[in-house]
Amino acid sequence: MGRASENHLVFRDSTVSRKHARLFSREGMWMVEDLGSKNGTFLNGEPVEEPARVLPGDEISLGNRVVKVLEVSSPLKMEDTASRTQVGESLTRVDTEKWKRIMKTIEELSKEIISSPSPERLLHRVAEVAREALGAERAAVVVREGGQDRIVATSFQEGGERSIGLSRSILRKAIEERVGVLTSDALTDIRFHGEESVVTMGIRSAACVPIWKQDEVLGAIYVDSSVARKIQTLDDLEILTVLGNYVGIVLEQRKLFEELERQRRIRERLERYHSPAVIRRMLAQDEEITLAPGRFFHATGTVLFADLVGFSSMMETGSAGEVGKFLNDFLSAMTEIVFEHEGTLDKYLGDGIMAVFGVPFSMEDHARRALMAAYRMREKSGEFKWRGRPMKLRIGLNSGPMIAGDFGSEKRLEFTVLGHSVNLASRLQSEVADPGEVVVGRTTVSQAGEGFVFEPKGKFKVKGIKEEVDAFLLKEVKE
Fold first, then answer.
1. pTM check: above 0.90
2. Which member of 7, 51, 195, 442 lies 3.0 to 4.6 Å from 33 by CB, making a disulfide possible if both were Cys?
3. Cβ count near 101 (within 10 Å)
4. pLDDT value at residue 471
5. What is the Cα–Cα distance from 256 to 119, expressed in whole angstroms?
């Protein structure tokens, strides 16, 4: 007995092994023996581990198939070809019209998977098709996530009770044992004797198949009815299997949509801080440095502070609308320059900008990039005029070690950098730089490389730092 066509008794059932078990006569008695099948052979509910005697009234279970022993007589000649063909045909006969309808529906669903933006809607359609095809009262698509089974789609017979309570025993057998389950009368099925879920929910006939992705079980399709033998043919199980393959595709699409949505949200947030080039590197490396609360790291980079000169007088002479639009246009232009040099926008400081180069990704030339950006920002600022007066910036830069990460409260976190190097850059901008000047710390000068012309500005005592600091002016950038 088994699934292979050369067997005497053929079962076209995926839960039955190719050569599952055998019946043979020994010393005038009929015996049943398991042939190392995947799902085992059971005699009256007990596993057949050694050849066991078969008596009238016994039930032999092979996967989802049950053989009822009506009587025991002398050995039969099962080698007869005509007899074998008749058995095979009786067990594999299919409802052609039913399959035509199912395949047409599958074709329609396949078109929907391309055009529909909602995997949830497709899963509900699958549940509906499964219920209608099997004439069941209820159907559900179950997804296994993190070891938990969750119902993601349901369908109910019109006029019937619109609540779903799945038999955990049937569902568990399908998912954990990775087999299709078909029972025409669960109350008399020896596999589910004593199962409370079957009894309390009044389930008489049911079918359930696992949803596969390669070797991984993603979930299951489940249908049931309170009427015995409503679901009972091999066709019913095979229809669910076909639908299960389809659901596997839908779930992959659903996963893809979720990933695209996740990346969209990530990109939206990252665009506030990082250049497009940095964002591409983050997404390519699945980097979430700026998205993981509580994650902090040491870094080496160059910090830039820039402040718009004369903004207070602008607010006194212009309307709120004029000032707001002017400032937004100005800050947008400065931010684009930061991004062009692959810097990270740390934050806007009213009418100023704080940016960092070399964070979150390490850059050997972070000092050079920051200096190029500062020089370009100073040039660009002169193109903006308020009441005919060109705008000027005070800019301060410094390089060195710092701590980076998301800082703030549980309700609001912001990515930023902290440390002595950062404080010095801020003081160089606010206390040392004159309007139109780019003032640079010694460490930045030493790491700048060729192409920059600096001029010593002197030694300065700045707030929060004990020793005097050397300051240099960026005079020229040689292309």
1. no
2. 51
3. 15
4. 96
5. 10
